[in-house]
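hi! just following up on the protien thing from before. the input was this:
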Amino acid sequence: MARPGPWGELEVHTVYLAAPDSLLAAVAKPNSVTRWTFEQTTEQSVRALLARIGVQAEIVTRLFSSGRSQANGNTVVLHPEVEDLKSLSPEVRSALYTELAKSAANEYQRDPVYILGGHIDEWLMDAELNEEQRTLFRQLVWRRGDAIVFSDIAALLTLAKNSDEVLNIFRTVTRVRSLIVELKLPLKTDRKQFLEYWTAGQVDAPRLTFINAITSRRAPQTVDITHFLPSLMRQRAYTFPEMELGLKGRFPDCHWTSLNFFNITPKDYFLDTRLAAAHLLENYTAMEAPYHFGDVLCFIDNGEGLHTCVYIADDIVLTKNGDSILAPWALMTIADVQSIYRRTSSTRIQGYRLKR
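and the predicted 3d structure came back as:
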């Protein structure tokens, strides 16, 4: 249950969004061979790094045995086996994978599966994994800051017996947790405050007809708040991008989403990060909390913008985490978004409100 406010009294549940098979078929999937790639280094330096992190000496010896290591120029690649992965303590795995995440070559350490809220049991509840796969998943999770994450998709794939199980594993690990948020009726909030909040100054907003109508309801019921979103984002909420949206050269990302929030027709030049930043600074006013419906929240670390999302109500935002075709438009808590984008203790949120 969210805190009541000018947005009304909200009821919150969770759902896991899974990409349709048509999208999964178009995405390259990892194979079952685990790779750790170390760039701009030497074999001696990698050995020293592994020892410093706390990887057991016998594992290091096996990793550099014939056939399990490759050195090409200043790049060293290691191929650990599943038993090696299971032998790492959670602390060592976290330290090692944090190091691996510095390189884009280690895709799933850099962009892991997030167990939002830290609820592993909830994440596994509807997962299309058998018991052996679930056990391995639990053994290989690690901590990235405050978040519980998982990176060893290749290890899970070693337990797949056929192509259907490969698809099930990939579908499961690419799910994204979203919130389902419903307004409880009859309305207990002041009607004028409620209307001002959800219209955000758009007195001619097409959705105003529906918002006005539900304020008159007296029968107990709930209404999904996606009905209160502007039309473009109402269509996008809980969906994955269609393939056609990538024809512009990249798929919509967080900035495209945040800056098009109130637009009827999307402006695709927001796909250019430089133009998006210029538009934000010119057309929005910097704001501190408490935020209002439609405010853009920018996650900043040492002057660098990491992510933007749109404030909806209480601690709930609309977000698209990255420009991947496997990143849906979802409702999340601010805390969950922070767990994904917090880079250091200096990471902060700056709010921006559209000038009217």
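The first strand starts at residue 10 and ends at 17.
The chain has two domains: 10-18+178-354, 36-174.
cheers
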